[in-house]
Design a protein that fits this description.
globular; 33% helix; five-stranded parallel β-sheet
């Protein structure tokens, strides 16, 4: 359920497992049916990499070598498909390598390619998996343009209710033995006073809607002599995408060696001033510009050190000693120049100053990026005492994410060019008061802190939400998730009264979801999940490699179980309904 990156990874690895010679004996491959369900019109890209959601200037957050569904497959695919990409999609190459002679282009492991290009890769790999499956006699049924409304355990397996988004027709898939919930990120249905305001854009995607809503709003509020202003709430990758979308009609110029030189706003025609964009976040900083991982290792924050913390705190971890150890490692790697306080509160007076420093010298930045990322990958969050989890979620995760998720160098150059052009400014709104409120005239008031630490405010005509996802399942917009939660097919992960966010998994370490049966909680025999819907995922994972590892484990689990699944015969009636009959 969901065929974006997570679902495509799962399909590819499952088909690889099922097509291994001798894997399914004595069960024939023709006895297996795989059904995929996707709301969008195409399988593979999912929401973030779909062409309608990813405009040319939107880059992947990670280097190409880390993005493949196995090994260095994305870069290999780029090389294999170079003639086709050069002929049919030259703009995606030139966006990354401006001014290059297309015939001389060679894919680079360390490059941050456009998300639309990665979407094409996922679309191709999805269909490659389908072809391999069918070549081995495995039936693959693809339900694009469909939504899953409900799901439940039945005596014959798992049953899901689907709706065709084009016709509205609803039908059921019954007798499913294994089901993957891979629905990706979501926009919360939180009780937000701004959510229904006509000047508030709830997400930067799709970019066409963002441009349309802001343009219409600014036309309706245009005042002679007043400069239109849009506030982008969030300075992470989604916030940067929003800024690039809002500036799409202007033009970036480049130096001879491919670096961004300047930005020219699009001519207004009526003599109005160009749009003023204000970007803000709690910290007031964009993600760092980083090179590749360094060879630095954690020497203080080690598994043995974590074991020592557990022994002193009744088997649980505490955040303060963890941060103390990480601070020692950071100072050791930077010869005392930087520590954890510099991650929480970078020593820069503005976002621009930090961007310039990142571009100029990554000598200390790269070790910090490396060690914070390695600390995050130790997955210490899941063992924190519940009260410390709450502190981490409220105050600390933003710093780990901001440091561990690098920014493409070109985006930093574009942001500085926008600042030079007077189009972009940034603010820090801190942690105290809600940063955005509605003024009595229908506009917005943005609260922020000055460089002197004083409270101030500015006015904006529009607000674009690009902040971190809310992981409260109670506010999930999907009827499927709400119904699964209501039925007990999935449950919140909760510890000592603190709901960490996301659904609970089998505590033994598999990707089977935890379900409620009466007063008991147990692993589901059918339903698995990984990625955004899952507890802890947002605190411990950010790279594509985590999805690949999970997909490999789920695929191996499902393939190993195939010989234990009763063989069924499948039939489809004229309306498209599928029925199954269990055989011997």
């Amino acid at each position: 359920m969901g065929t974006g990156f997570a679902g495509t990874c799962a399909l590819w690895h499952l088909v690889r497992e099922l097509s291994v010679p001798g894997r399914l004996s004595p069960l024939s491959r023709s006895a297996i049916t795989i059904a995929t369900v996707e709301r969008g019109p195409v399988n593979g890209p999912g929401y973030p990499y779909a062409k309608e959601n990813a405009q040319l200037g939107h880059r992947c957050n990670n280097e190409a070598s880390t993005m493949g569904i196995h090994g260095n497959d994305f870069v290999d695919w780029l090389a294999e498909n170079k003639p086709w990409l050069v002929a049919d999609h030259p703009e995606l190459i030139l966006e990354t390598h401006p001014g290059i002679e297309l015939t001389e282009w060679k894919p680079e492991d360390g490059e941050f390619y456009p998300r639309a290009l990665f979407g094409l890769y996922l679309e191709h790999r999805f269909q490659d998996a389908v072809k391999i499956a069918r070549d081995h006699g495995i039936d693959v049924q693809q339900y694009t343009g469909h939504e899953v409304l409900d799901g439940r355990t039945t005596p014959d397996g798992f049953s899901v209710l689907l709706r065709d988004l084009g016709s509205g027709r609803e039908f059921t898939l019954d007798g499913l033995d294994r089901v993957l919930l891979s629905t990706g990120h979501w926009r919360s249905t939180e009780n937000d006073a701004l959510a229904e305001h006509e000047g508030c854009v709830p997400a930067p995607y799709p970019p066409g809607r963002l441009r349309s809503v802001t343009a219409g709003r600014l036309r309706s509020r245009r005042t002679p002599g007043a400069r239109p202003r849009v506030y982008v709430q969030g300075m992470g990758p989604s916030g940067i995408d929003a800024i690039m979308t809002l500036c799409d009609e202007g033009e970036f110029t480049y130096t001879a060696d491919g670096h961004v030189a300047s930005y020219r706003p699009a001519p207004s025609g009526g003599g109005e001033e160009p749009l003023h964009i204000v970007a803000g976040s709690r910290s007031g900083f964009f993600p760092p510009v980083r090179g590749p991982l360094t060879g630095h290792e954690l020497t203080h924050l080690t598994p043995d050190a974590l074991a020592g913390i557990r022994s002193e705190h009744q088997g649980q971890l505490r955040i303060e000693p963890i941060l103390d150890l990480l601070d020692k490692d950071l100072r050791r790697a930077t010869d005392g120049a930087l520590g954890w306080p510099d991650v929480e509160k970078p020593r820069f007076s503005s976002a621009r100053e930090k961007l310039e420093s990142d571009l100029r010298d990554s000598r200390h930045g790269n070790p910090v990026y490396t060690l914070v990322l390695k600390a995050r990958r130790m997955c210490f969050y899941r063992e924190l005492e519940p009260g410390d989890k709450a502190v981490y979620d409220r105050l600390l995760d933003t710093h780990f994410i901001r440091t561990a998720v690098p920014m493409p160098r070109v985006n930093a150059e574009k942001l500085i060019a926008l600042m030079d052009a007077g189009v972009l400014t940034t603010v820090k709104h801190g942690y105290a008061v809600p940063p955005v409120s509605v003024h009595e005239d229908g506009g917005f008031v943005i609260a922020y802190e000055t460089t002197a630490g004083e409270s101030s405010s500015l006015r904006a005509d529009c607000v674009v939400r690009a902040k971190t996802q809310d992981f409260d399942l109670e506010r999930h917009p999907s009827p499927l998730v709400r119904n699964l939660l209501r039925r007990g097919e999935i449950v919140h992960h909760e510890e000592s009264g603190y709901v960490t966010g996301g659904l609970a998994l089998d505590p033994k370490g598999t990707y089977r979801v935890t379900r409620r049966v009466g007063d008991l909680f147990e692993p589901s025999p059918h339903l698995s999940s990984y990625g955004s819907p899952v507890r802890f995922w947002q605190n411990e994972h950010n790279y594509a490699g985590a999805f690949v590892k999970a997909a490999e484990q789920v695929a191996a689990d499902w393939a190993d179980a195939v010989t234990d699944i009763p063989q069924r015969t499948t039939a489809r009636d004229d309306s498209g309904l599928i029925t199954t009959e269990t055989g011997s």
